[in-house]
Amino acid sequence: MLNIPGQALEYWITSFVWAFARISGFMLMFPVTGSFLPTSIRLLMTAVFSGAVLMAQPWNPPPGFTVSALSASSMLIALGEFFTGLMFGMVLTLWFSLFSMAGHTIGLQMGLGMAQMNDPAGGISVTVVSQIYQLAAMLMFFLVDGHTTVIAIVLESFKTIEPGSFFQVLQSAEQLLHFTGWIFSAALLLAMPALIALLIINISFGFMSRAAPQLNLLSLGFPLSLLSGLLIICLSFEQFSAPFRRFTREAILLLRQLAQT
User: Fold this and answer.
1) Which CA distances in Å does 87 have to 56, 101, 118, 154?
2) Which sequence ranges are marked TM in the entry (predicted)?
3) pLDDT per residue over 130-152, tens digit each?
4) pTM for the complete prediction?
């Protein structure tokens, strides 16, 4: 029969709870798993990853380890670990909203502001064009193995960020605020070619209305603007991989910086 000392068993249970708290916070905010997977699958994945973190821990508790698994200090540390995981997941949530914002801006310029669909990742209604950009970003994220890279960074953060270091991680929140402002400029940069092309088309309609006032531009301009916008989106997707890789690289770089705090 396996004889496990009580102190070692308590150390394993406490480490598992702390790892489970951090990973569960990340899984809650991670766009790939936040709303696309059932709760039972997310809990199972969190338990598996927490077990992997636990296997990497030393078998014997370090000297001076006196924290009980059910003590108030242990629960506070677990709460801090949960918020640490939320911060990691927030980076990917902001990255995902970049493409949603760019598609939403293009959809409004095309006149598709009323054509909206439910966004399962954000829980809000977005335009159809925004949904197309989200799905394209999600597929390319899987194709470049972004999900494995991000999960590996979160698991490796247990080597650099010890449990109970939430306030140390919170000091890096300023980088997250700067990243939030960068999201708006990146979304505008991604949507800029389509916006400029649609603006030129709308200006052409204005000249047409001045040259031939008898034309009914309400019935003529909207279909042409819609077809032109769809054609522009098809052409822009041929160059979608270059900005996608650059924006994803920035998000993963920020995630690494937070994980190495």
Assistant:
1) 23, 21, 25, 11
2) 12-30, 176-205, 217-237
3) 888 888 888 888 888 888 889 88
4) 0.78
